[in-house]
Amino acid sequence: MNLLIKGADLIGTGRQDVLVRDGVVSEIGMLASGLLGSETVDQTIEADGLIALPGLVDLHTHLREPGREDAETIASGSAAAAVGGFTAILAMANTTPVTDTAEAAERVLDLGRLAALVDVQPVGAITKGLAGEELAELALMAHSRARVRVFSDDGRCVQDARVMRRALEYVRAFGGVVSQHAQDSQLADRHACCHEGELSGRLGLPGWPGIAEEVIVARDVMLARHTGSRIHIAHVSTAGSVEVIRWAKAQGIAVTAEVTPHHLMLTTDLLAGYDPTFKVNPPLRPAEDVQVLRAALADGTIDAVATDHAPHARHDKEHTFINAAFGVLGLETAFSVVSDVMVGSGLLDWAGVARVMSVAPAGIAGLSGHGRPIAVGEPANLTLVDPSATVTVDREASLSLSRNNPWHGRRLTGVVHATVLRGLPTVLKGELV
Amino acid sequence: MKRSLLSMNDLDRQDILTILDTAGSMHDVQHREVKKLPTLRGRTVVNLFFEDSTRTRSSFEIAGKWLSADVINISGKGSSTSKGESLRDTVRTVAAMGVDGFVIRHSASGAAQQVSQWVDAVVINAGDGLHEHPTQALLDAYTMRQRLGDLEGLHVAIVGDLTHSRVLRSNLICLKTLGARVTVVAPPTLMPAGIQTWSQTEGFDTSYDLDAVLPGADAVMMLRVQRERMSGGFFPTEREYTVGYGLTRERLRLLQKHTVICHPGPMNRGLEIAADAADAAQSLVLDQVSAGVAIRMSVLYHLFAGEGSLS
């Protein structure tokens, strides 16, 4: 199978034609120049005006299978991911049952392969049943067919410093990384749902103060320094966490961090109407934090964008604010949000987008076939985006099984046009192939 | 006047004064031998209480009955929500029976506002979590106004567990709209998040020093302090709380002669308010309860019978 991508701007460095043979980039040049071979082309993508990026990689999705297939399945989540420009996604472990064994991880891997739209890489739980008490079978997951490298109890924070220390030490044997959902449960308990500040005071909603995240980030970077292990901070949401991470990186501590599209754009004031659509964990923060997060993503203090795609059945969101489920959809809109917020403002160029949405997350997750340069001999995992097209988000148009979409009705600039997984288009003209 | 009463922000100054004046007429009805008015005949009002309440629920029930409305009480514990039905389904189910309005009490902040988006009926907030309790603020204003006259320029001190008080939030809005000056008093741990910027925006004062505030107050509103708060580390002991923030017999001497004492109830005698203060001649506690029915009659009248004249 030969695929020709004609005239795309390769990561903003200039227009080229790209010939893909059997899933691998085989030639790059201009057809007109005669540099490209004249062999038969099975399929051509006209890419005038499009930017080619390495296929996007999401470190943080919730696919709900097994357990809540009414909210999302591995197949429906894969479809949403492909339309969002992703070629690889990491599926969080907080399913029912939890991904805390090799068998559970292999099952997620296999269901992802069956859907065959993106590479679905399971994340393993750090502790059995996400209980925060005993380590899960980390090495068996690492040595399984699923080759698990990222471990997280996401949705819950590992509160016990001793357990966290042991996990960090243990995963060194197989080059693993521990991803922490940073939330001190004493400072922000399970009811905490609104950024603690004037609005939470006025609305009478339980506050989720930034400090509840920051004390765990600070503790964990010190544990990572002590153990010499890799720590990854999931969904960083406050300026204080950014300060700690910046300091830790300056010390040479092996810390990486991600930020979600919603924390890059949406702010606390959206909660004023008690609409549970905007209920996420950690909560939306004030504009000052959002500005700091954007700058930190631009300067590399925050390494990656990760969606924290969290589908929920409608009836799990139609409760009072305090009782509704946490989470928003993110896979289909992530690129458009990053394009709108980061490229539109000049904070990132296209190489920067490639870095935060593909190269860095692939590196953190240890996915060797993703996040690669667009060069001869590299696997053809590619995303073609239209930088000037706009989209008005319509939650009903989603391929996710859920509708908890905080972007509904918003107009965003920058749209995914096509996605190519190992040389095979999964998405063309914005539609699933 | 807006169609529903979800927050004190739904009422402007004129709305509040209209409700207080009508409550005055209703208060007269309350002392007649035959108390029934035909105003809301044929209207059905559902008291939907998902949280325990004695005085608010019964005063709404009496108010509705004296206005000849059909009043139905549904309490959360026996209702479908305890069987796992969502709040949305519960209210839409009841609304589908053709009721005209809901009086709703719920432990979750924002519940009344959400319900108003799910049904077409009139919705009255009878207390939503830590957010608001508008009819309480109205009856507080009514009671203080009866004793002190126009509240414009008067100084009201609100003292106690501010963080966990929906009465505080509604009163801040109501008293400001009526032109009163407000100082809120509590230990730092019982002040709501962001109160410093909030107080600047809304123009009220905050203090940790009750003794400094009392001599300048025309009204002192004591808020209930739940004993369970101690386990949350909000204050160390009852004794220390009372010494710092209780309206004790000793502190009564700091009050001016005309200063009135309010408490929304239920009171923790000996904790936030001494018996001598609760039962003092200056205490309006029972007047507040009595005004509760009149205020709720007035609110039901204005929201259901519209702007027409009182028959």
What keyword list fits this structure?
heterodimer, A: 433 residues, alpha/beta, Urease, subunit C, domain 1, TIM Barrel, nine-stranded mixed β-sheet, 12 helices, 22% strand, B: 311 residues, Rossmann fold, five-stranded parallel β-sheet, four-stranded parallel β-sheet, 14% strand
Architecture overview:
The complex is a heterodimer of chains A (433) and B (311). Chain A is of the alpha/beta class and 433 residues long. Chain A contains twelve helices and 19 strands. Chain A has helices at 74-83, 102-115, 138-142, 161-170, 198-203, 210-227, 239-250, 261-265, 287-299, 314-317, 334-343, 350-365; strands spanning 2-10, 15-21, 24-29, 43-46, 51-54, 56-61, 86-91, 119-122, 150-152, 177-180, 194-195, 207-208, 231-233, 255-259, 304-305, 382-392, 411-421, 424-428, 431-432. In chain A, the strands form four sheets. In chain A, strands 1, 2, 3, 4, 5, 16, 17, 18 and 19 form a nine-stranded mixed β-sheet that branches. In chain A, strands 9-10-13-14-15 form a five-stranded parallel β-sheet. In chain A, helix 1 (74-83) packs across helix 2 (102-115). Chain B is α/β, with parallel strands linked by helices. Chain B has two domains: 8-133 and 292-304, 3-Layer(aba) Sandwich (Rossmann fold); 134-288, Aspartate/ornithine carbamoyltransferase (Rossmann fold, 3-Layer(aba) Sandwich). Chain B contains twelve helices and nine strands. Chain B has helices at residues 13-30, 55-66, 87-96, 111-118, 134-148, 166-177, 195-202, 210-213, 238-245, 249-252, 275-278, 285-304; strands at residues 44-49, 70-75, 101-106, 122-128, 155-159, 181-185, 205-207, 219-222, 260-262. In chain B, the strands form two sheets. Chain B has a five-stranded parallel β-sheet with strand order 7-6-5-8-9, covered by helices on one side. In chain B, strands 2-1-3-4 form a four-stranded parallel β-sheet, sandwiched between helices. In chain B, strand 1, helix 2 and strand 2 form a beta-alpha-beta unit. In chain B, helix 1 (13-30) crosses helix 5 and helix 2 crosses helix 12. Chain B starts with 12 loop residues before the first helix and ends in a 7-residue tail after the last helix. In chain B, 47% of the residues are buried. Chain A binds chain B through residues 196-205, 207, 209, 273-274, 315, 318-323, and chain B through 86-88, 106, 108-111, 113-114, 128-132, 163, 166, 169, 192-195, 197-198, 201.
